[in-house]
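An instance as discussed:

___
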Amino acid sequence: MSTSLLESQFNCRPLRGHCVYFIGIGGIGMSAVARILINEGCIVSGSDLRISPLTSSLEGLGAKINTKQDGSFMSSETDMVVVSASITEDNPDLKTARKLGIKVVKYSQILGSLMKEKRGVAISGTHGKTTTSAMISTILKTSGLDPTFVIGGEVPDIGGNAHLGKGNLFVAEACEYDRSFLNLTPQVGVITNIEEDHLDYYENIEKIIHAFGDFASSISEDGLLVVNDHDNNTVVAARRANCKVETFSLDNASDWCGEVLSGSSGLKRFRVFYRDAFFHEFSLQIPGSHNVLNALAATAVCTFIGVDKDSIKTALASFRGANRRFQIVGVKNGITVIDDYAHHPTEIRVTLRAARELYPEKRIWCVFQPHQFSRTRHLLKEFARSFQNANRVILADIYATRDNDYEKTAMNATKLYEETRNSGIDIQYIPQLSDIVNVLYSSVSPGDIVMTMGAGDVWKVAYDLVSRF
């Protein structure tokens, strides 16, 4: 990778040997970029309040990480500080960096600079970004194109959440929060869907659609934008594109159309048609019609890049998904434990629907940990209606991140519990994760399905429960 752009933008000396400090290094995107910079020869350090497998992995690569985040770990020799979108100006590490006069950049800025050195592929949308990014990266890697990629989830089959490839392609998950994706310069873009989310930043759906329209207009004129045209908000945003636009859906009116053939035993078989002509028949190991849509988007992107249809078919057939996306953590004593990142009502609904299709006669337990007080408040009624395919629901306390004092006083988990119970759902409110494990251990029976859901640390329940069994 050429370093000239980074040198000019951040006034830094050549990348190798450069000291970069990440505030919030344990985040999925931050850890991915940190991994790439380590591979480029940077001296990487950072801080995060929580220890995780991601921070442990980075330490194994030589990164020095502390959990105090009090400013004491930052050296005056640090050349550049990278901050995640969740870091505020009152963070002691950031205040120390400002005091020392160290260059501070956002994660999305450095991601955009890295992308400019290659042919960028950016996957955006309220839902499905991680799986679609993982599919595209898997197809490109197994086809021998060796892309660089930064994905918002661990994908074990291709080496994790990041890889520094020798090819000229850079695949990145493009997050809309803080308009971060506008720092990217893709030749190829995807918009999977657009819904209300991150309302602590955007205020309303109109501003969200406008931001996605800005993203669409940022794609180079010789490139491609792939959009779900059964999402009206996405159609509106796509009108701002200056490049070729191709659509996908399960309707034959789209450029890329999927026809689901079967979904038994966890295998999804489907035919793909391109502009009304038969393209190929594919299969997926991961359940849910929403993943057929993700596969259609990935197929459109990789076909534009130049991957042949047989290579796409082979890669999709072997694709086992990203961690925390319908991930089977274990099957013990006839009880299947699954972990999923779903933290928006639509994601909960489609994931539970996929579980019901896969296990039509089984009792499904859903353990849900709300993510953010503000998201819970804005989408309260939608959350309450999203658990229809679960037999039993256990609600944990809200996982706080980026929430101010007003949000923490305006919303609590009890309100979500009452709203959900009033909608006819069998729900328990058990605030602490450790207590949830105890209740599950004494209550579940052979044949039951236990699904943990949320963007916080609810995954611990899944692993602790399997360990107890």
